[in-house]
Write a structure and sequence with these properties.
rod-shaped, mainly alpha, 89 residues
Length: 89
């Protein structure tokens, strides 16, 4: 739609704002991102591809889970070390 009406506007951004308003999209930036995403994924524009973005999200989640597991193990280690110290007295 943006490409179809771009000739009616002084800039691509103006066309994006117009189409976003007509479609009831919250912000023109959202529509802009939707337009740019396929171009980035096809390496036609610089930026993080959808595949890399999904992988980063997955790794962040895994990292959070591993940090949480490490905290639990550290707490258990402190607890059992304290119990062992009490039993040796």
């Amino acid at each position: 739609m943006v490409a179809e009406v771009q000739h009616e506007h002084p800039s691509e951004w103006a066309a994006i704002e117009s189409v976003a308003g007509k479609l009831g999209i919250g912000t023109a930036q959202t529509l802009h991102n939707w337009i740019r995403r396929p171009q980035t994924d096809a390496s036609q524009r610089p930026g993080v591809t959808s595949e890399i973005s999904a992988e980063m999200k997955k790794l962040r989640t895994e990292n959070r889970e591993l940090k949480r597991a490490n905290e639990i193990l550290n707490s258990a280690s402190v607890f059992f070390a304290a119990e062992r110290g009490r039993n040796n007295k």
